[in-house]
UniProtKB/TrEMBL annotation:
Keywords (A to Z) from UniProt: ATP-binding, Kinase, Nucleotide-binding, Phosphoprotein, Transferase, Two-component regulatory system
GO molecular function, one term: ATP binding
Catalysed reaction equations from the record: ATP + protein L-histidine = ADP + protein N-phospho-L-histidine
Protein name: histidine kinase
Domain Response regulatory positions: 330-446
Listed PROSITE patterns: HIS_KIN, RESPONSE_REGULATORY
Modified residues (4-aspartylphosphate): 381
Domain Histidine kinase: 87-311
Alphabetized InterPro entries for the sequence: CheY-like_superfamily, HATPase_C_sf, HATPase_dom, His_kinase_dom, HisK_dim/P_dom, HisK_dim/P_sf, Sig_transdc_His_kin-like_C, Sig_transdc_resp-reg_receiver
Organism, as annotated: Desulfatibacillum aliphaticivorans
Superkingdom as given in the UniProt entry: Bacteria
């Protein structure tokens, strides 16, 4: 009997199905299909004809869409958290500026052998740590640009290890070994902090909670192999090699080949974005360094970061002049935070300047309009109610285009140096400024030196 003898059952012509099911192909791999069943009468007997449509591409597209929706939702949450973190950092910056400022003023008033002088120095050290934490918060909220400075690797590693120990079970041993006397490099301490946090977190996930060991080592290495240096896109010379080693499960060659690919992760779904090591590699490369990995299944892994070392001759040149600089010019100082206005007025007076300070930008503008030749410099906050710092600067420059203006902000990316120069502002500085930085910034602008 051929197909023409088959006909739908007169008693039930309804299609049954339209539901998904999973079959196995010839390689025993799952195949997602859409199943439809049609009742038929064949050779006067009732039968069911089941047909399948391969919907693997549809399922993949649906999963990609769900992943994109999840990423979008996560992105929105991170944006909201970043905005909140940035706002908190801004407020904390203002508080910290007053703490640092008044502590420095107190230190100026006391002889170095006074018992309280040492106490004030401890306050300033703690404030410097708080300042670094603010930078980390601003970096998280994507409001901070990379900031290259002379840094000691051991200090960053100590800070990271102190933070990371809280997330490690006490049964996992953490070792630190420093095999060099000079551990100074040029870099962004916030970015490198994130790099080491990421690698140590990965190491913690790789080791056993019962017998886990994670070791951090720093050593001086002179890279002389030009072929190796070219392969890793670095310039031969003195380097610091930071190795993070674990005795975990290790990685096979396939994993090693893809370990730095964006979105590649060996973690369970929902527990990793696959961006960590891609970001790490990007940060290391931006520091003119390279990263290597040595691992085998069951034998742990070693991530080695190679960063150009700063030799002692270069160190002095980088540090530059750290003396407090003074002056006698007239300064218009504007900030909506009263405690910062009081500090600015006091600090500038100590440095020798004549100061008029305002918490109201409109009142400051009115004072300038009344006596535009009475000021040699304007220092203004960016974020103020009534009239923002950039708009205040624009109004002042309309009256007197040659007046030097410094814009202070807690958000380094909220107002760029390029935008400032377009308006006519001479320089943009990040709060809180230490007395040395503050005095040098003012002197540089007044003396007409180009901003770095």
């Amino acid at each position: 009997m051929d197909a023409s003898d088959a006909s739908p059952s007169p008693g039930n012509r309804t299609r049954i199905g339209g539901y998904e099911k999973t079959l196995l192909d010839m390689q025993n791999k799952p195949v997602h299909v859409l199943s439809t069943v049609i009742p038929l009468v064949l050779d006067r007997k009732n039968h069911l004809l089941e047909s399948f449509i391969d919907i693997r591409q549809l399922r993949e597209a649906q999963e990609k869409r769900r992943d994109l929706e999840t990423q979008l939702e996560r992105s929105r949450k991170m944006e909201a958290i970043g905005t909140l973190a940035g706002g908190i950092a801004h407020d904390f910056n203002n508080i910290l500026a007053a703490i640092i400022g008044y502590s420095e003023l107190a230190a100026f008033d006391l002889p170095e052998d006074h018992p309280s002088h040492a106490h004030i120095q401890e306050v300033l050290k703690a404030s410097e740590r708080a300042k670094r934490i603010i930078k980390q918060i601003l970096a998280f909220s994507r409001r901070s640009e990379p900031e290259q400075s002379l840094i000691r690797l051991e200090e960053i590693l100590d800070e990271v290890l102190t933070l990371i120990r809280a997330s490690f079970p006490s049964s996992i041993e953490i070792r630190k070994k420093i095999f060099c006397e000079n551990d100074r490099i040029m870099g962004d301490s916030t970015q490198l902090h994130q790099v080491f946090m990421n690698l140590l977190t990965n190491a913690r996930h790789a080791v056993s909670e019962e017998t886990g060991v994670v070791e951090v080592a720093v050593e001086s290495v002179d890279v002389t192999d030009h072929a190796w240096a070219t392969k890793h896109s670095i310039i031969p010379g003195p380097f610091l090699k930071i190795s993070i080693t674990d005795n975990g499960h290790g990685m096979d060659e396939v994993t090693l080949q893809r370990i730095f690919d964006p979105y590649f992760t060996t973690k369970e779904k929902g527990k990793g974005t696959g961006m960590g090591l891609a970001v790490v590699e990007g940060v290391v490369t931006s520091h003119f360094g390279t990263i290597t990995v040595d691992s085998k299944p069951g034998r742990g892994a070693t991530f080695a970061i190679w960063l150009p070392a700063i030799e002692k001759g270069e160190e002095t040149a980088i540090h530059g002049d750290e003396t407090i600089q003074t002056g006698a010019e007239s300064v218009l100082f504007v900030d909506d935070e009263e405690m910062l206005v009081k500090f600015g007025e006091r600090m500038l007076s100590v440095l020798g300047y004549k100061v008029q300070a305002f918490t109201d930008p409109l009142a400051a503008l009115e004072a300038f309009q009344e006596n535009p030749k009475g000021f040699d410099l304007v220092v203004t906050d960016l974020t103020m109610p009534g009239l923002s710092g950039d708009k205040l600067a624009s109004e002042i420059l309309k009256i007197r285009p040659d007046i030097p203006i410094i814009l202070a902000t807690g958000y380094p990316r909220s107002f760029t140096q390029k935008r400032a120069l377009e308006i006519g502002i001479r320089s943009v500085f990040l709060k809180p400024l230490l007395a040395t930085e503050f005095s040098q910034a003012i002197r540089k602008v007044l003396d007409g030196q180009p901003d770095a």
